[in-house]
Fold this sequence. Notes:
By secondary structure, the chain is of the alpha+beta class. It has one domain (about 75-255): Aminopeptidase (3-Layer(aba) Sandwich), CATH 3.40.630. The protein has seven helices and twelve strands. Strand 6 (about 105-115), helix 2 and strand 7 form a beta-alpha-beta unit. The longest helix is centred in the middle third of the chain and has 18 residues, at about 120-140. The chain is globular.
Amino acid sequence: MLTLRKGRYRARFAETAADVRAAQRLRHLSFVENRGLAADRPTAAGAIDADAFDAICRHMLVEDEASGTLVCCFRLLPLSNGTEIGRSYSAQHYNLAALAAFDGPMVELGRFCIHPDWRDPDILRVAWGAMTRFVDETGAEMLFGCSSFQGTEATAYHDAFAVLKDAHLAPKRWLPRVKAPDVFRFARALRLFRPDAKRAMLAMPPLLRTYLLMGGWVSDHAVVDRDLNTLHVFTGLEIRAIPPARARLLRLAAG
């Protein structure tokens, strides 16, 4: 059973239904209450964010050992290769037919969130350490998922989207196509836009920044998700493409 301890934090897989429910409560806090959606959706005590994918995923919990507080969670869906891509959450929002040709093991990372009251950067480091260990243990060759920008107004993120367009689009052989009914085609819309790099990095979600530092890439469009009040891009990372220095740091975090 994967357990990772670093400093004050412990990462482990959910072992019980109560563990999964705790992750679902944190997700609701992060995705609904903390994004100002609860005012429009009466929130009962103990409200959860849950869907059908929870039953087929492994759930990772990052806890503060001293208090037992759940400070971060995410779920992982291993796939034997690209022929199973249709089972993923991401495939509900993107046409991933190109990735069906990927011939190695894959892992979808989803529902990643950090408790809104916790700002310690070590939480993200521990989470990536746990992910790295899982990727190594399963022999995964690609990590993928959806990276979310808060809000649905794309103009707030033009600099970030333009940087993604200029430097981080998926290789053509893997490029996701449009499937969702409401999208912002930023690669087309911002074709001539020249971004401010500093504003772009400040607007980039921390999880996506980490993906990009490791050589990750994104779709050429963002899906407008009004249910969760987000814009999200498909994000992929081929494990063998991670720069050696970055891979060493990840494995130190996973040790």
